[in-house]
Amino acid sequence: MHKSIDSFKGVSPILGKNVYVDGSARIVGDVVLEDDASIWPMVAARGDVNKIRIGARSNIQDGSVLHVTRKSEKNPDGFPLIIGEDVTVGHKCMLHGCQLGNRILVGMGAIVMDGVVVEDDVFIGAGTLVPPNKRLESGFLYVGNPMQKKRPLNDAEMAFLKQSAVNYVVLKDEYLEEAN
C-alpha cells in the first residue's frame, strides 16, 4: 500500500482506477477515491470517525484538510464528507462534514462547515466561510465571511467548473506517467 495511505480500526482507503495521491498527502480510514480523482501535496483526509467519499475526476489541491463529524445520540449519522464528481477543491481549503454535488469549484482558502449541502454547479469564492447547515443553490457564486449568494453564474463560469476538473485529470495523468 502507498506510504501515505493508512487503515484505521481495520478500515482502509479504497482507490479507483488512475487515482493520483501525492506522497506527502495523508489518507486515513474510511475514504473512497473514485476513478481519476487526485490528491495533491500536503492534503490530509481523515476518515476516522465517519466516511469520506470523493467522486470521479475530482481534485483536492495542496494543503487542504478533509474531515468528518462522528455519529452521536443527537446526530445518529454524524456528518460524513461527500464530494461529487468533477469537483475542484482549491489550495488550502477546509471541508468538514459537508456534502458537495457535482461540478463545483471551492476557491482557495475556503472553509465549508458541518451540515452544509452544496448543490451542483456552484462556485465558492476564495476565502469564503460557509457556516454550518447552509444550503448553496445550484448555478450561483457565493463569496464572503460569512458567505453570501452573490449572483448567478454566467455561461463561461459554468463551463469552467467542468474544465477545471478536466485540467486536473490531465495533470494527474502526467504525474502518473512521470512516476512510471
Automatic annotation (TrEMBL):
It holds the Pfam family Hexapep_2. InterPro entries: Hexapep, LbH_gamma_CA-like, Transf_Hexapept/Carb_Anhydrase, Trimer_LpxA-like_sf. This is Anhydrase. It comes from Alteromonas marina.
